[in-house]
Amino acid sequence: MYWTLELASFLEDAPWPATKDELIDYSIRSGAPIEVIENLQELEDEPGEYYENMEEVWPDYPRHDDFFFAEDEH
């Protein structure tokens, strides 16, 4: 499984919190690339487990704090 910012962007508007199956269904319906669907299928899934956000799907997902620029300067 590999994620990139581009692939993760297809889940920005996903209906969080969501189960693995709901995320896969959303990805298919929204026309996400097959790589997104394959990555989601590789997630370990406990019945009834909900993912609250992208960070739970991709632990290395860069958060807003990870970018080193001052917003007030732009």
Task: Describe, in plain words, how this protein is organized in 3D.
With 74 residues, the chain is mostly helical. It has a domain at 1-7 and 16-57. Helices cover 38% and strands 0% of the residues. The protein has helices at 5-9, 20-30, 34-41, 54-57. Helix 2 (20-30) runs antiparallel to helix 3 (34-41). The chain is globular and about 45 Å long.
Order of helices and strands: HHHH
Backbone CA Rg: 14 Å
Counting DSSP H or I runs of 4 or more residues, the number of helices is 4
Low-confidence stretches: none
Structural class: mainly alpha
Q: Could you say which overall geometry the principal axes of the C-alpha atoms support?
A: globular
- DSSP strand (E) fraction? under 5%
Helicity level: 25-40%
Oligomer: single chain
Distance between the termini: 35 Å
Mean pLDDT, nearest integer? 88
User: Could you give a short account of the major beta sheet?
Assistant: none
Tally of strands? 0
Features:
74 residues; mainly alpha; 4 helices
Give a summary of the structure in a few sentences.
With about 70 residues, this protein is an all-alpha fold.
Topology readout:
Layout: H1 5-9, H2 20-30, H3 34-41, H4 54-57
Helix pairs in contact: 2-3
